Amino acid sequence: MTNRLSKEQIDFYQENGFVQVDDVLSADELQEFRQYIEEAMQEENQNAIKNNAQNGSYYRVLNQKVNTWRDHGGMARYAFHPRFAQMARQLTGADGIRFFHDHALWKMPGDSKPTPWHQDLPYWPMDQDKALSIWIALDDVDENNGCMMFVPKSQTVGKLKGIDLVNPQDIFQFTKGTFVEEQRPVIVRMKAGSCTFHSGLTFHYAHANNTANPRRAFAIIFMPDGTVYNGQRHVVTDDCALTPGQPFAGGRFPRLA
Ligand code: SIN
Ligand code: NI
Fold it and tell me: Mind telling me which SUPFAM superfamilies this protein's record contains (predicted)?
């Protein structure tokens, strides 16, 4: 599998704030990865963070687990895979890329709710704005089971307020009268084993899952080397001995590319 992106893909990301990259997993890797993520989602973990109770209203948006790598070596293999980090490095143009956290993101069948329009960066404890996510589809995704949508160029409006994913505010109220009103969201249907990258500033949304099976996705959040912890609360940093103003480093935030 290649880790080289084309100039067109890099230019598209820099202009639009997201890019689709097909076939980032081989068929064998996809099979293995699905097995690992099934195991990781079932296990009671010491270190991974499952932050939504079953049957709660959050669960209808997302059944999620953060930092699966800390309990499951197979998940660590994919979370730290240099292929993904090298792509993130090419997209951002950063000298180096560090790992922030991984994120198993399942949309469960049965009264599923969309993931409302939001930016990711307001939730992350950093002031720099070049961090980004890879979102890897482990199932084929379309509007019926929770594929993503992105607003092209919305990353240029800068960091807004964090949106409550259960009782969402309308993010577009913050961009009234700007070019964002005219932008058509792009629906990204993908085959399992393909991915998107999106900037922490890009407006994105995921459809509800109206099928009988979970929609399984895995995200990894990457940040340019030199990104600094700003002291904001976050599940990943709350138990770390980081002081505000300190660059992310060490074994929890390894440099991967
Ligand atoms: C989702 O997987 O439904 C949302 C992912 C994201 O917000 O980045
Ligand atoms: Ni998001």
Answer: Clavaminate synthase-like (SSF51197)
Mean pLDDT of 47-55: 83
Q: Which domains does the chain have, with CATH numbers?
A: 7-224 (2.60.120.620)
Q: CB of 206 closer than 6 A to ligand 1?
A: yes
| Beta-bridge partners for 216 | 106
Residue with tokens 């895979």: 81
Name residues whose C-beta falls within 8 Å of residue 14's C-beta, 6 or more positions apart in sequence. Answer: 91
Per-residue pLDDT reduced to its tens digit, 197-219? 999 999 999 999 999 999 999 99
Sheet order of strands, 186-188 included? 115-118, 204-206, 148-150, 186-188
Note the ligand closest to the C-alpha atom of 202.
2
Query: What pLDDT shows up at residue 137?
Result: 98
Q: Note the pLDDT tens digit of each residue in 102-135.
A: 999 999 999 999 999 999 999 999 999 999 999 9
Q: Is 242 in the pocket of ligand 1 (CB under 6 A)?
A: no
User: Is ligand 1 within 6 A of the CB of residue 223?
Assistant: no
Write down the pTM of the prediction. Answer: 0.98
Ligand 1, residue 146: give the atom nearest the CA. 3
Ligand 1 site-directed mutation target among 37, 62, 166, most atoms within 8 Å of CB? 62
Using left for φ > 0, alpha for ψ between -120 and 50, and beta otherwise, residue 126 falls in: beta
